[in-house]
Write a structure and sequence with these properties.
Elements (H helix, E strand, L loop, with lengths): L15 H10 L8 H14 L4 E5 L2 H11 L7 E5 L8 H5 L3 E5 L10 H13 L6 E5 L8 H11 L2 E5 L7 E2 L2 E2 L6 E5 L12 E5 L2 H11 L22 H11 L2 H19 L5 E3 L7 E2 L5 E5 L1 H4 L3 H10 L5 E2 L15 E2 L3 H8 E4 L7 H16 L1
Amino acid sequence: MANKIWLSSPHMGGTELKYINEAFAENWVAPLGPNVNGFEDDLEQFLGNNVKAAALSAGTAALHLALIECGVQYGDEVICQSMTFSASANPIAYCGAIPVFIDSESDTWNMCPKALKEAIEDRIQKGKKPKAIIVVHLYGMPAKMDEIIAIAKEFQIEVIEDAAEALGSSYKGKACGTFGRFGILSFNGNKIITTSGGGALVCHTQEDKDKIVFLSTQARDNAPHYQHSHIGFNYRMSNIVAGIGRGQMEVLKDRVAARRAMHDFYVELFKDINGVTVFSEPADDYYSNHWLSAIIVDPEMTGKDRESLRLTFLEDNIESRPLWKPMHLQPVFENTPYYGTNVSEKLFDNGLCLPSGSNLSDEERERIAYVIKSYFAS
């Protein structure tokens, strides 16, 4: 059996150990210290727009705290993109709130502004104005933020950007994760850069950042003894993990370039295969990091389907995965409201994510190309 080709594996830059060793040498192994502060500074400089960043234990933790800061409580409704990973929706349930799922649109595969507005108007008519909107930049592709922000302002609803997959992506030159009141980043092992696990919350004021840090460190009041006036959480990133992040930030631009090169590799590979569409930017306003390259396989035009292609890859020990199964189709959310025209369902039925790592070798790309060409020629 040939060596496994992963969908998206970690890619170290080489300087991570320097920061980790410094933390050990200085005994900064607690969830605070120079690496945490430095990592937050690195993120703020990279994102621009005068944002503040709080390094946390996971992107999911960041989203949970963002919802709390938006005032989401038990019984409230929160609008959420349906086509996404479950971590975008689970924190809504942590708050005891109810998700209202919105379909995708075909250009970016992200939240459909038309369905969003329809949902807000209908929920208000039913006496339940949503407390927040969670929009996701799927696979690194920016959502239609101008339209979504305009709708949110019209109805005075806070926007939270799930940019877990979109560090390094931008819309009209502005970094993803900096449009809403809060933005969410993830540094899981499969992301464009990794801290092994971890995330960050992006906001626009020092006041918001201070409150997030306060809540993420068990909400201890300013007192010589342990006193708590709020429910807190153990969500802060450790100084060791942040050291990995500092090293990864040094190679982030290279990682984005490599992922975009993988996308171009697939565009070239599929250019003469009718019925296969590579997920690409719809216009110059969009700049995707192409965290994962993905395709849509038209069964009628190709006589093939994405599942048989996935199994063919698997036979050669190459990992590929279907697109995210929409949240409104998940058993755990089967009784929640949904608005749309089933665009996300069709994408799920026919879409496949392909190996996209920034550390893929020429030999591995040749193996991928051979499987694809052989499969569609058969």
